[in-house]
Each structure stands twice: as C-alpha cells, then as structure tokens.
Amino acid sequence: MKEGIHPEVHEIEITCATCGSSLSTRSTIDTIRLEVCGACHPFYTGTQRIVDTEGRVERFKKKYQGVEKK
Asked: Is the pLDDT reported for residue 70 higher than 90?
C-alpha cells in the first residue's frame, strides 16, 4: 500500500436502535447505527412485530381510511 493515500481505520461500535445490541468492528467512519439487526429482525428470530418509525402506520391508515376497494 502507498503511504499517505488511505483513510485511517479504527475500532468502532455498531449499535442497533431497536434492541440496543452492539458489535465491534473496524471502519473509516466514526459510528454506525442500525434500525434493525440480526438479533431482532423477524426473519432471524421467527417472530413478527411492527417497527413503526415516525408514525408511518398511522399516516398510511389515515391516508387510505376513506378509500373503497373496487
């Protein structure tokens, strides 16, 4: 590798916003925050739950409340 052209790689923590689990890795950026990780994702856990970010489910229901199927 050439000297002085590569970014500095350092230890960081990856944190899941849903379950709070964390993982150590090396990266060129400071922090990584995930919405859903392998520890809480329904595909891996076998359970289903709705992760509602910023009231999206309510906005969808409100938007299509009066719409009828044809």
From this structure: no
Q: Where exactly are the structural domains of the chain? A: 10-63
Cα separation of 16 and 50, whole Å? 16
Q: Tell me the C-alpha distance between 48 and 54, whole Å.
A: 19
Query: CATH says 10-63 is which class?
Result: few secondary structures
| Sheet bearing 22-27, strands edge to edge | 22-27, 10-16, 32-34
Q: Is the pTM of this model over 0.70?
A: no
5: Cα within 13 Å, side-chain hemisphere: 3
Q: List the structure tokens of 31.
A: 């922090």
